[in-house]
Amino acid sequence: MPANRYRFPLVENATKLRETSLSLLEGELNCSASLTFYNNGTFLKFNSSISIIGTNQIYSEKEFIPDDSGIFVCEKPPWYDLYDIRVLTTIVTFTISVTCLIIAFLIHLCTKTYNSTHDRCILSFSGALFFAQTASLVPHMNTDFCKANAILLHYLWLAVFNWTSVMAFDLAYTFSVCRISVLRSTDSQSLFKKYSLIGWFLPFVIVLICVLLDLFHESVDFGYGSMIHCWISNKTAVYISTTTPVVICLIFNFACIGVSIYGIEYVKKRSLQVQKNTKDSRRCTVYLQISIMLGVTWILAYVVMAYPALWLQVTHNIVNGCQGVYVLVMTIKHPKVLKGVSSRLQMYKVSFSKSKSLTISTSSEVKLNTKIKRHYSI
């Protein structure tokens, strides 16, 4: 299988070089780490620097040596370089996002707002997002581990988008004039099982096909698990295996949301189901916001791949980290959550009042008994 990137002495060009030549290259680059070779097509040139596709690692003019078929670079340390603002923003924003998702899960569990199909879909989406962002925070350890993590990330990010499509379809299905009879005849639990099969299994099939092609087809190389970021390093593979499904999901989402908006307006005109209409309008707004947020995040990701400017990378990291925060805000604003929290606070207030009154009553009795004892003792 042809690789986009090699460590010596696996590179064809490098095997023709003597040990003294390699030493000269290392000396010229002042390289105390490992020397690495990138094939043409795996990096982008801008001004006098180059950016590695898939990792966005930037090398200045003095950090690489051009060759006929690629470039030699002195490999930088793994991406946990705390002096890099891009790394800091990624770690901070993703940590905040993951923490917010954990809090959202706990709120759902405490208030028991996970019985409806809508709530279960939101929880599934949040779960996929939680694991995707957590896996993104895992640093590189070794090549095999990084490759496995890249495959896992590929699956999880596809699952995140797939669940947005499932939620958008569920809302459109409520209003669609051509409803599917199989889904129509099932209850909420059975319907969610079908949604789960689509939400989790479809991305698995896509990733499985990609992995099998990567392993057994000689002309296909996805480049799972680069040395800096555990992701897909082949630009064409990213466009085919990730961009295409993501774009399809977003188009499908906006189409379903359009159907839903039309249905909501239709219900407004033809019926007096104000409460149901308000609930569906809220769902429509939530799904639209999620789709726009994810869409903007991934559009920024591809802009960064083409133009790896520092401010663009930092902006992308911040927007990407806002997803978990939004899920938490959306959870807190859930009517059942607000009602549940309010009722629990009321219970604690009543319990505290009873406890306080009991304490005061007990204290009064003790004082009275003390006075009586003193009176009789005199």
Automatic annotation (TrEMBL):
Keywords: Membrane, Transmembrane, Transmembrane helix. Its main location: membrane. The chain crosses the membrane at residues 87-109, 121-140, 152-176, 197-217, 237-264, 285-304. PROSITE patterns: G_PROTEIN_RECEP_F2_4. The keyword Transmembrane applies. One of its GO terms (biological process) is cell surface receptor signaling pathway. Signal peptide: none annotated. Residues 86-335 form the G-protein coupled receptors family 2 profile domain. GO terms for cellular component: membrane. One of its GO terms (molecular function) is G protein-coupled receptor activity. The keyword Signal does not apply. It comes from the Eukaryota. InterPro entries: GPCR_2-like_7TM (IPR017981), GPCR_2_secretin-like (IPR000832), GPCR_LN-TM7 (IPR053231). It is found in: Membrane. It is a multi-pass membrane protein. This is Latrophilin receptor-like protein A. It comes from Crassostrea virginica. The gene is LOC111138451.
